[in-house]
Amino acid sequence: MIEQAKNKQHELHMLNRKQLHLTGVNNVESFDSEEFLLQTELGHLTIKGQNLHIKNLNLEEGLLSIEGHVNSLVYLDPGSHSKNKGMLGKLFK
């Protein structure tokens, strides 16, 4: 069982900030045309952009393809407070 945890894989391929292909996707927790929140083999991933939409989704195989204009990709570490600091930082700018 420990070997399975070590073999977790997650790949991300982006082409011209317009096409994004991911493997190791466990769940799409939320999405709209400006933001996706994904649970991947290596943690939560937030994708922000414009006109984002799902081109292909196969959670059995862990595959996801997104099209649109990608502005940022951010991995959220478990137990990290960076998301809260970011929100406070935006309020007090």
TrEMBL record:
Question: Which Gene3D superfamilies does this entry report, sorted A to Z?
Answer: 2.60.40.2000
InterPro entries per UniProt: Spore_YabP, Spore_YabP/YqfC, YabP_sf
Q: Would you say which domain of life the source belongs to?
A: Bacteria
**What GO terms in the biological process aspect are recorded for it?**
sporulation resulting in formation of a cellular spore
Pfam families to which the protein is assigned, alphabetical = YabP (PF07873)
Which NCBIfam families did the record assign?
spore_yabP
Record's protein name = Sporulation protein YabP
Task: State the organism named in the record.
Answer: Paenibacillus rhizosphaerae
